[in-house]
Amino acid sequence: xxxxxxxxxxxxxxxxxxxxxxxxxxxxxxxxxxxxxxxxxxxxxxxxxxxxxxxxxxxxxxxxxxxxxxxxxxxxxxxxxxxxxxxxxxxxxxxxxxxxxxxxxxxxxxxxxxxxxxxxxxxxxxxxxxxxxxxx
Amino acid sequence: xxxxxxxxxxxxxxxxxxxxxxxxxxxxxxxxxxxxxxxxxxxxxxxxxxxxxxxxxxxxxxxxxxxxxxxxxxxxxxxxxxxxxxxxxxxxxxxxxxxxxxxxxxxxxxxxxxxxxx
Lengths: 136, 118
Hints:
The complex is a heterodimer. Chain A has one domain. Helices cover 82% and strands 0% of the residues of chain A. In chain A, 28% of the residues are buried. Chain A has helices at residues 3-40, 44-67, 77-82, 84-126. Chain B has one domain (3-117).
């Protein structure tokens, strides 16, 4: 395989990996997240959170994928494809960036759940007649 | 396979072992804390799973972000030092994200526990 072909194949393969990593994380956490949102509220907030959760994982993964630049230090295309080791190194950087962005996005979602729980508990304690929020 | 590839695989295995080695002793204590503060079984599951993913991904991210570019005639100890250097990169990333999770755990404790204590 030529370096030019390797660049094309590996670039799109790493892009597919970004989707796979985000998808695996989403599948792993989806059920518990949906159950939390259902217990918080049956209204719009629950629906919005459910819809935003996959987007909040896939978009950071994609961001991690595209933030790594092959054109470091003003390299031309010929210089980029000259060395296979440089291409492999960039692939590693891309995967690393994808994983770290997903981890950061998860921390953000953890925070969102805390805020939602706090909000639900405050509402629950302040008004006795809130039938849609039932927390133990 | 080249020696660089072997060194890289060794770093990956060590990183995964580190993530698992940190997660297992902390899991039970974290579950207990979450059960007393979140008090929602699905919430406990969500936070425990996200803790595992954050630890695992930060370790792998740290390992993959490190490059092995030693010459083929390098000595054995040069590979060992390179792996050690990569491991320091892994630990840096893991501690950064672990710190983030610790801040989060403090927020959980402060915001959900205080209200119940009143």
